[in-house]
Amino acid sequence: MAVFEPGQIHPIELEAEMRASYMDYAMSVIISRALPDIRDGLKPAQRRILWAMLDTGMTAGARYQKCAAVVGEVLGKYHPHGDSAVYDTLVRLAQPWVMRYPLIDGQGNFGSVDGDPPAAYRYTEARMTAVAMSLVDDIEKDTVDFGPNFANVPGVREPSVMPSLLPNLLVNGASGIAVGMATNIPPHNLGEICDAVVRLIDDPDTTTEDLIRIVKGPDFPTGGIVYTRDIANVYGTGRGRIVMRAQVDFEESKSGREQIIVRELPYQVNKSRLMQTIAELVNDRKIDGIADLHDESGREEKVRIVIELKANARPHTVLNNLYKHTQLQMTFGALMLAIVDGRPQVLSLKAMLQHYISHRRNVVTRRTRHELTTARERAHILEGLTKVLDNLDETIAIIRGAQDEKSAQTALEQRFELTERQSKAIVDLRLGRLTRLESGKLREEYEELIKKIAQLEDLLANPRLIDGVIKDEVTNLRRRFADPRRSEVRHDELEMNEEDLIPQEQVFVTLTHRGYIKRMSLDNYRAQHRGGKGVVGARRSTDEDYIEHSTTASTHSDMLFFTNRGRVFRLRTHEIPDVKRQAKGIPIINLIEVDQGEKVTALIDMEVFSDEQYLVMVTKLGQIKKTPAAAYAAVRRNGLIAINLQDDDELNWVRRSSGGNEVLVVTRRGKGSRFTEKEVRPMGRDTMGVGAIRLRKGDEVAGFDIVNPDGHVLVITENGFGKLTPMSDYPVKSRNIQGVYTVDQTAIPKIGEIVGMRVVEDLSEELMVISTSGQVIRIPLEQVRISGRQTRGVIIMRLDDGDRVASIAGVGGVVALEA
Question: Which of 128, 282, 459, 791 registers the highest number of CB atoms within 10 A of its CB?
Fold first, then answer.
């Protein structure tokens, strides 16, 4: 840096001056304020606070003193910044929800996990904790360098670093924002870190992978759950993400409702702000299912947040939504950056442990040298005293005959060949030390010192002995202060998909003639008696639109969409919009990529795809095909070929089967054919199939289903008539014949052609009938008359003029009837 004489003016480029000034400022912030030292894990302000407390006797076990005294001592001697900066740092070192191992023992109001501020420093008191004393142990033995304070006041010096037996940077972590860089080091368990130190000393070639088996992950003071999927990257590179979750339980309240109990929070989460966020999400209807929220936490750092759920809420779904939208789940962005030899550096776990070991080697070596120097000096004095004790009378005579102290020293030096220091010690010796007992103690002390000197010299000559001392001290530190982990470590996958946030429930899926699809909870429909008018399931968007396909499914199942052109598409059921009963839904082309003129003709819900399960397809012109369900497990968004079709043919029906069932095919004009599925060999996706039923001219297939021998055949006609026929009325024939009559042929002009057929296995099920105008009726099948094949049936649904039945669906289970 250039030095100018007073009064001289020198031109300086503005850019160069700004660059130099900014760099000076940046390095000052980086080195002197925001980032911790790799050796003791302390920032300058933290180090100065602990040094001031040690220097003024505020040690562990001493009486508490006002924090104002600490702040004043630090400001006056060591830290030329504001009092709030010093006090805030002191408070943080005392907060057990911030520090894994607090370094200051506070008395009074030091804030709370709710974000409450601490009391003013004139009210609070503090002293060092026992674990903090391990940071400063042996500091008086020349183990670290000292320097002048900011004002260079004579006699006032401060340590540049602490001896730090405690691996503070790793066990308490650090966070700080400097200029152009930041650090965020998570806290760890002291026992695990001590074990890792010992392992690394024993085997310097220990890998990060080996260390992870010892240091399982961060150990936050507030506990919670830590997911360590990215921990190898964090510990290997010094950067990465650590996902934290609250520790929760499920309990049942006195009223019988489910409750989510939050017992531990992720690190640095403000409890009060978290509860406010949950309340806002409930009020904004972004999270459903929460009835009440209250805080039952104790006065200490113990947490108990009670989230009471509504009667119909699904606890795990509500919890997953809380994880997604609140701080019950957070990501800790680890950046393990610290000051190394005066420069900021990102470090791996192994590198941080190596720097700690290197620092301790330096401390133990300097301490050993100090102790060796002290021991040699004392031994030197004892050597002189020993000579005096052997000639005690002569020594006393020399001293008594001397004119003054100086001449006595000179006489003794000449007579016994003593050094000035030895003669000084002899002259200053009290007469009481000249007894036989005291002389024996002096000789014993000298012998012990000789042994100690030999041990210290061996220690300095053998680095492995130094490492042994470090291991012993670390092991003792672990024994004194290590405690069980607070954070639970989990290695399983954490990523939540949309399905985790969707309640698993049975829903009713409908698709209209014009291609509008929606799903609704089955609770939207009530059971009615036969002949009822039904409830409005969907308003028609136009006069021509009506519900054409419907099915029931779980929100967590797959929905396969088969089209008239023989293609198949796949969606998760919960991806279908959940809308109100009277809403028309959204166009199916927004969900799957159907072509113009292509229509969905069958909906199949699939829980699993396996080779033991088959999908059996029947076309409008009577072709049948079966294919293993596993062939449809990887259906793409743009669809796959499900069946090859002849000209003018369409795929209209798909059912699941075991591969060995019997099937029933019914035509619109009342013909039915029952045959065994074994007559249809399994085929691949891209095949045509074989004939199922021989059609008369102008006839088409009206329905197809898998046979249950003990079941009944339900047929519904377009004018609202329906009936149940025992399956035994349908004889088993061969494939590809005309079949037998299904309804009274003479009644077709009145009842209309058959529009829906299905095989009913349990009469306790319910029937859902949908008309082209959107009317829906849901009735127990027990109310449908059982009659023979060649009968017309009874009125199931009364229709308005111009209206007709569009489709049917079955709903499992019995609900209470409503008049």
Answer: 128
Given 123, 235, 323, 546, the catalytic residue: 123
CA dihedral 41, 43, 49, 50 (to 10 degrees): 10
User: What CA–CA distance (Å, rounded) separates 425 from 403?
Assistant: 18
- What phi-psi label fits residue 659: left (phi over 0), alpha (psi between -120 and 50 degrees) or beta? left
Residue with tokens 């100690």: 452
Measure the N-to-C terminal CA separation of the chain; round to a whole number of Å.
98
User: Angle 271-283/315-325 helices, nearest 10 degrees?
Assistant: 110
3-class secondary structure per residue, 610-671: CCCCEEEEEECCCEEEEEEHHHHCCCCCCCEECCCCCCCCCEEEEEEECCCCEEEEEECCCE
> How many whole angstroms separate alpha carbon 278 and alpha carbon 294?
11
The answer to whether 593 touches 644, Cβ cutoff 8 Å, is: no
- What is each CA distance from 43 to 130, 175, 272, 546, in whole angstroms? 20, 10, 29, 72
CA 287/CA 61 separation, integer angstroms: 51
3-state helix, strand and coil shares in percent for the chain, rounded to the nearest 5: 35, 25, 40
pLDDT, tens digit, 9 for 90 and up, residues 309-352:
988 787 888 888 899 899 999 999 999 999 999 889 999 999 99
Q: How many CB atoms lie within 10 A of CB 214?
A: 18
| Identity at 423, one-letter amino acid code | S
| Rounded distance between C-alpha atoms, residue 706 and residue 710, angstroms | 12
Helix count and strand count (H, E) for the chain: 18, 41
Identity of the residue numbered 546: Y
819 pLDDT band (50/70/90 cuts)? very low
Tokens for 682?
């399994």
- In whole angstroms, what is the distance from residue 272 CA to residue 114 CA? 5
Q: Rounded to whole angstroms, how far apart are CA atoms 663 and 665?
A: 7
The three-class DSSP label of residue 151 is coil
Residue 603: which H helix or E strand, with range?
strand 600-606
Q: Any catalytic annotation for residue 25?
A: no
- Burial category of 420 from C-beta neighbours within 10 Å (exposed 0-12, middle 13-18, buried 19 and up): exposed
Cβ neighbours for 448, distance < 8 A, ≥ 6 positions apart: none
**Two tokens, residue 413:** 């030096």
* Pairing mode of beta strands 337-340, 247-252: unpaired
Query: How far is residue 509 from each of residues 178, 655, 657, measured CA to CA in Å?
Result: 57, 16, 21
In a 3-state reduction of DSSP, which class is residue 796? coil
pLDDT of residue 632: 86
Tokens 């010094």 found at = 238
Give the whole-angstrom CA distance, residue 287 versus residue 321: 7
Distance CA 511, CA 585 (A): 9
User: Rg of the chain's alpha carbons, rounded to an integer?
Assistant: 44
Edge-to-edge strand ranges of the sheet holding 671-676: 701-706, 662-667, 671-676, 740-741
Ramachandran sector of residue 767 (left: φ over 0; alpha: ψ -120 to 50; beta: rest) = beta
Specify the pairing of strand 225-227 against strand 488-490: parallel
Q: Structure pTM? A: 0.68
* Tokens read off for 813: 């289970």
Residue 93: predicted pLDDT: 96
Q: Is 596 exposed, middle or buried (0-12, 13-18, 19+ CB in 10 A)?
A: exposed
User: Is the torsion defined by CA of 230, 236, 241, 247 positive or negative?
Assistant: positive
* Cα–Cα distance for residue pair 86/92, rounded to 1 Å: 10
